[in-house]
Design brief:
Helix 2 crosses helix 3 and helix 5 crosses helix 8. The protein has two domains: about 160 residues, 3-Layer(aba) Sandwich (Beta-lactamase), CATH 3.40.710.10; about 130 residues, 3-Layer(aba) Sandwich (Beta-lactamase), CATH 3.40.710. It contains 13 helices and seven strands. The strands form two sheets. Strands 2-1-7-6-5 form a five-stranded antiparallel beta sheet. A two-stranded antiparallel ribbon has the order 3-4. Helix content is about 45%, strand content about 10%. It has about 300 residues and is α+β, with helices and mostly antiparallel strands.
C-alpha cells in the first residue's frame, strides 16, 4: 500500500456504508448503564506510522469492558511470568458464551482462556499489590503510558456492574473453590469491575492497537512491555478475542482483535496498523455489528489478514 493512499476517504466511505447495519443489533441489557447508549453511533480509526485517520463517532467516550482483559493479562504476564498465569488459566478457545460457567466444572478445573470472564477474573487475582488501588494502578498505569494521558473510569458503569454482576460473582466464588483465584474474592471482583469501567474512545483504541502492532513500543518509541508478552496476548486475541465468534472473525477479517460489550473493538495489524471501531449495537455473541462490518470492509481493501 503506497503512502499516498487516501485512508480518510476509505474510512468515511466505510462508516457511511456500514452505519445502517446497527439496526441488526441490540444494546446489552444485563448492565443497566450500557442499555442507555445510542445504538446508531459508529466510528472507525486507523493509526499508521505516519498519523491517525478517523471517521464517524471516534471521540465518544465508552468503557473498555472486555477489551480491558488484554491489559490485565499483559500486566500479569510481565509481573508474575507466563508459568504462574497459565497455572490458573488455560489457553484454549471455547465455543461457549463469554460469561459461561460450564467449563469450570467439566474441563480441566480452570478457565479455558483469559479472554472469557472467568479467565479474566482469575488473571486479575494474579496482579500484585497491597490494595485494589495499587493493583488497578498497574493496569491504569500501563494504559496511561500507552496513551500519554491520565485514565478515568465511568463511576456510573462501575457501580452498575458492581451491583448487578451476579454471574461474575458466581464465577469468582467458583474459581476460589477450585483454587484458581488468589486473594479475597470481593477485592478481585472490585478490580475486575474497575478495569471494565475505564473510559476510552475509538481514537485511543487505534493508538493502543499500534502499540501492539509495534510489539509493545509506545508512540514515543519507549518499550513498555516485552515483545514476548505482546505476542502471547496477541495470539489470544486471534483465538479468543471475539468471544465465541472468534473463528468466523479470523476468516472474515484475519487480525488479532478484542471486543467489549460497550461496542468497541481493538484491532492489530502486526507491524503495520492499529485499528479500532465503535458501535454499541451488538450481535448475539456480544460483538459490535457495525464494528465487524467496518473491519471486514477495510480488511479487504487494505489486505489486513495475517493468514
Amino acid at each position: 500500500m503506497s503512502t499516498g493512499f487516501d485512508y480518510a476517504a476509505l474510512l468515511n466511505e466505510t462508516v457511511e456504508e456500514c452505519r445502517p447495519h446497527a439496526e441488526r443489533g441490540q444494546l446489552p441489557s444485563y448492565i443497566p448503564e450500557l442499555k442507555k447508549g445510542n445504538p446508531k453511533l459508529a466510528g472507525i480509526a486507523l493509526q499508521t506510522t505516519t498519523g491517525l485517520f478517523e471517521a464517524g463517532d471516534t471521540r465518544v467516550d465508552f468503557t473498555l469492558q472486555s477489551i480491558s482483559k488484554v491489559f490485565s493479562l499483559l500486566v500479569a504476564i510481565e509481573e508474575r511470568g507466563p508459568e504462574a498465569v497459565f497455572a490458573k488459566v488455560g489457553s484454549e478457545p471455547t465455543g461457549d458464551p463469554f460469561n459461561s460457567i460450564v467449563k469450570l466444572e467439566t474441563s480441566e478445573k480452570k478457565p479455558p482462556n483469559p479472554m472469557i470472564n472467568a479467565g479474566a477474573i482469575a488473571v486479575c487475582s494474579l496482579i500484585p499489590g497491597a490494595s485494589v488501588e495499587e493493583r488497578f494502578g498497574r493496569i491504569a498505569g500501563l494504559l496511561e503510558r500507552i496513551l500519554d494521558r491520565p485514565i478515568k473510569i465511568d463511576e456510573a458503569v462501575y457501580q452498575s456492574e458492581k451491583e448487578t454482576g451476579h454471574r461474575n460473582r458466581a464465577l469468582a466464588h467458583f474459581l476460589k473453590d477450585i483454587n484458581c483465584l488468589e486473594g479475597d474474592v470481593e477485592e478481585v471482583l472490585d478490580l475486575y469491575f474497575r478495569q471494565c469501567s475505564i473510559l476510552v474512545n475509538c481514537a485511543d483504541l487505534a493508538r493502543i492497537g499500534m502499540f501492539f502492532a509495534a510489539k509493545g513500543i509506545n508512540g514515543a518509541g519507549t518499550p513498555l512491555v516485552s515483545a514476548r508478552a505482546v505476542r502471547l496476548v496477541s495470539t489470544f486475541m486471534v483465538t479468543c478475542g471475539m468471544y465465541n465468534g472468534s473463528g468466523e472473525f479470523a476468516i472474515q477479517v484475519g487480525i488479532p482483535a478484542k471486543s467489549g460489550v460497550s461496542g468497541g473493538i481493538l484491532g492489530v495489524v502486526p507491524g503495520r496498523f492499529g485499528v479500532a471501531t465503535f458501535g454499541p449495537a451488538l450481535d448475539r455473541k456480544g460483538n459490535s455489528v457495525v464494528g465487524i462490518s467496518m473491519l471486514k470492509r477495510i480488511s479487504e481493501v487494505l489486505d489486513f489478514s495475517i493468514f
